[in-house]
Specification:
alpha/beta; 7-stranded mixed sheet; 3-stranded antiparallel sheet; 9 helices; 36% helix; globular
Length: 276
């Protein structure tokens, strides 16, 4: 059944992005918006489209004007540069936390304010919460889990990576297989699953690859919103900066063009926001 009003999602931008990506997407949150729009198209939910608001209104008038509102309504909030400014919960149906180059465990004002806001969401039952990478870690932190640098000597987990799904993960992603392929770019992790969370998957470097609370919380450690172009830019910049060396860079570049399940994850995010 179509939603009775637009599906209203607030994207909390936790980073600013790199030059080539910004030239294409204009702002960091638009990368996640593109994932959600692709997910909405893949979900093929009746009455849900990602038409701009003016086009939605025109369509409604053509259909008689008195029918149900339609569309995917996405707003973006820069929580780094406009710290402490968040959407009112009564104005949204879901909140999406993006990834970030920043430390999810940092004791700094904007990060602490973000954790406090996430706890407000967790304290109510209507607005749903999705997080990727840094966003996944912030949600874990808000739920009481330890977050920090991975103490595994291998360190970085980058490029297209196979995540071994749990029984719950296979149900959530409805894949019919045991592995989810997803872009990764992280050295920080959630160390343990918070109480009451269903574990979705793990890798050799990171045992908490996704968290799920039905109707409430859905996170992944990976970056389903990334494309090959986006990841190549990050890999090249971080290699030039010496963030990681030749071995990690060459291995990551060898896997960057592999098939991945980003749109599938976006589809499941949309279905989760819709309560399916």
């Amino acid at each position: 059944m179509a939603p009775s009003h637009p599906l209203r999602i607030a994207i909390l931008e936790c980073d600013t992005g790199l030059p080539q990506a910004l030239a294409k997407y204009k702002r960091y949150g638009a990368i996640s918006s593109a994932l959600l729009e692709a997910g909405a198209a893949a979900a093929a939910v009746s009455g849900l489209s990602s038409l701009p608001q003016q086009q939605q209104q025109k369509q409604q008038k053509q259909e008689g004007g008195g029918g149900e509102k339609r569309g995917l309504e996405i707003g973006m909030w820069d929580v780094v540069n406009e710290a402490g400014r968040f959407p009112r919960l009564e104005d949204v149906d879901g909140v999406f936390l993006t990834g970030s180059k920043h430390d999810s465990f940092a004791d700094v004002p904007w990060t602490n304010q973000l954790v406090a806001y996430v706890r407000q969401i967790l304290a109510q039952a209507r607005v749903k919460l999705v997080g990727v990478c840094f966003g996944h870690q912030i949600i874990g932190r808000a739920m009481g889990a330890k977050v920090g640098r991975n103490d595994n000597p291998a360190g970085w987990e980058v490029s297209v990576t196979d995540v071994d799904l749990t029984a719950e993960g296979r149900k959530v992603f409805d894949q019919g297989k045991d592995v989810l392929s997803i872009y990764q770019m992280h050295k920080d992790i959630v160390f343990d699953y918070p109480a009451g969370v269903q574990p979705l998957g793990s890798t050799g470097l990171c045992k908490v690859q996704g968290m799920f609370v039905p109707g409430r919380v859905f996170t992944v450690q990976g970056h389903p919103e990334f494309t090959e172009e986006i990841l190549v830019e990050i890999l090249e910049v971080r290699h030039e900066q010496g963030v990681f060396g030749d071995e990690i860079y060459k291995d990551a570049m060898a896997r960057v063009g592999r098939r991945h399940d980003g749109v599938l994850v976006g589809k499941r995010f949309i279905e989760f926001f819709l309560g399916k």
